[in-house]
Amino acid sequence: MPSIEPLRTCRICGKTACSIQELELFSKDSHYNYGRENRCKRCNADRVVLQNRQNPKPSYERTKAFRAKHPESHRKDIAKDKQKHPDRYRARKMVYNRQIPLAPSCVQCGSGENLERHHPNYSKPLEIITLCRKCHGLAHRTVLLCKVGA
Q1: What are the residues whose beta carbons fall under 8 Å from the beta carbon of 14, sequence distance 6 or more?
Q2: How far apart are CA 142 and CA 148, in angstroms?
Q3: Separation CA 89–CA 81 (nearest Å)
Q4: 150 vs 148: CA distance, rounded Å
Q5: CA nearest to 13, candidates 34, 42, 36
Q6: Which residue intervals of 13-132 are DSSP H helices?
Q7: In terms of C-beta distances under 8 Å and separation of at least 24 residues, what long-range contacts does 12-16 make, across chains too?
Q8: Which helix (H) or strand (E) holds 56?
Q9: Phi, then psi, of 132 in degrees rounded to 5
Q10: Per-residue confidence band for 8, with pLDDT thresholds at 50, 70 and 90
Q11: Helix (H, G, I), strand (E, B) or coil at 137
């Protein structure tokens, strides 16, 4: 019986993915074969933890410093993102230009602190609901989980 050649093999721990379903063990990255990294998600998480221990400066500060040092790269990323998600940018622009006010409390839990605007559908830019930070994050995670499960 011929052996099945793995689609991906983690270069750190040697874990293999021999089917499309097993590719879910590897992080997505379009630069690699099969659109997956050559490190499994577990090894990748360990790598990030180690990097953060070696460089304790918060990641947003590292990102800010990189953007200041390489503004042309940052501009290209923004332009690419605008082309990829035009509805999202149009919706945000309309919200900020028209100064649409926030409701006094979160429509989900009723909290009045850390309120944010949420677009359930970017193709309808003026349909905005007010959510607290916790419910807003939960709303986005729920959408992501539904997309992954579909």
Answers
A1: none
A2: 10
A3: 9
A4: 6
A5: 42
A6: 41-54, 59-69, 71-84, 86-98
A7: 12/39, 12/40, 12/43, 12/46, 12/47, 13/40, 13/42, 13/43, 15/40, 15/42, 15/43
A8: none
A9: -75, 165
A10: confident
A11: helix
CA angle 145, 79, 118 (to 5 degrees): 40
Model-wide pTM > 0.70: no
- Rounded CA-CA distance 95/126 in Å is 7
Tokens, residue 141: 């995670």
Q: What is the dihedral of CA 74, 143, 85, 115, to 10 degrees?
A: -70
The predicted-structure confidence for 103-149, as pLDDT tens digits, reads as follows: 899 998 999 999 988 888 878 877 888 999 988 888 887 764 444 44
Angle value at C-alpha 121, between 108 and 145, nearest 5 degrees:
70
Tokens of 33: 């074969």
Answer whether 120's CB lies under 8 Å from 129's CB.
yes
Q: At 88, list the tokens.
A: 């999202």
- What is the C-alpha to C-alpha distance for residues 42 and 46, in angstroms, rounded to an integer? 6
